[in-house]
Amino acid sequence: MSIEPVSLVLAFIIVFFGALVQSLIGFGLAVVACPLLYLVDPRYVPGPIIIVGFSTALLTLLRERSNLEFNGLQYALLGRIPGGYIGAFLLLLAPQPILGLIIAAIVAAAVCVSLSRISLRINRKNLFIAGTLSGVFGSIAAIGGPPMAILLADKNAAQFRASLSAFFVCSSTMTLVILASVGLFGWQDLWLGLGLLPVVLLTHKLSGAWVHKIDKQKTKVATLVLCSASALLLAIKSIQALI
User: Fold this and answer.
1) Radius of gyration of the chain (CA)
2) Are 103 and 142 in contact (CB under 8 A)?
3) Per-position b or e across 79-94, b if 16+ CB within 10 A of its CB
4) pTM: predicted TM-score of the whole model, two decimal places
5) How far from 90 is each of 79, 93, 95, CA to CA, in Å?
6) For the purposes of burial, counting CB atoms within 10 Å of the CB of 108, is it exposed (0-12), middle (13-18) or buried (19 or more)?
7) How far apart are CA 219 and CA 203, in angstroms?
8) Which of 11, 70, 106, 200 has the fewest CB atoms inside 10 Å of its own CB, making it the most exposed?
9) Tens digit of each residue's pLDDT, the chain (243 residues)
10) How far is Cα 22 from Cα 27, in angstroms, rounded to an integer?
11) Alpha helices in 182-215 (DSSP H)
């Protein structure tokens, strides 16, 4: 296993901004990072970035643990199991350019959802459905946040970050186990993910000082612009590979 120095530096920069966004607003690491990392080196998706997401969520949860309300999240985690296997088998079947298009489509859908004002009741059925969709998206591209973010959107900022972080810690572990069980996560993925952890520690330290000062709306707008651009670029590259 070898990563070009330029690719490694680009991966560090991408993960830095993605992890910073997630630490500040509760989710967004994979939405920001996955399409760009896939362009830099497809080996970073999904396993290594899931490790980064797990680490970022764990650090955020430890910081926000006093705001945690875990009631009902077990139903979302239950839905994550069938969703995770569905996503894993789709991942096994999809050629690389098709996978690139799928990731671009998931990111584009996440952007559209973020711009909408959808409000759903938090009940067992909706938690299970959100967890299942999260599992599908999470296995394919490590982008499991948007379905749960929609459902938990009415919580205050601290509760939102804590609840999503708790879900990500558990669901990321489940997804890695599922991917490993079908041969889609191995030692190479583990080392690639661990190699990015110094960036996660840096962003956590910075976000701890900024989390109560940051302009959430400006951060959201900048994130959506970056996500839209990266999804478009990945879609163009994937289409070119298919032609």
Assistant:
1) 16
2) no
3) bbbebbbbbbeebeee
4) 0.86
5) 17, 5, 10
6) middle
7) 15
8) 70
9) 678 889 999 999 999 988 888 887 777 788 888 888 988 999 999 999 999 999 999 999 998 888 887 778 899 999 999 999 999 998 888 888 888 888 888 888 888 877 776 777 889 999 999 999 999 988 888 888 888 887 887 777 778 888 889 999 999 999 999 999 999 999 999 999 999 999 999 998 888 777 666 666 666 676 777 778 888 888 888 898 887
10) 4
11) 187-194, 197-210
State the CB neighbour count (10 A cutoff) for residue 222.
14
Which pair of tokens denotes residue 83? 């969703």
**Cα gap 120→71, rounded to integer Å:** 16
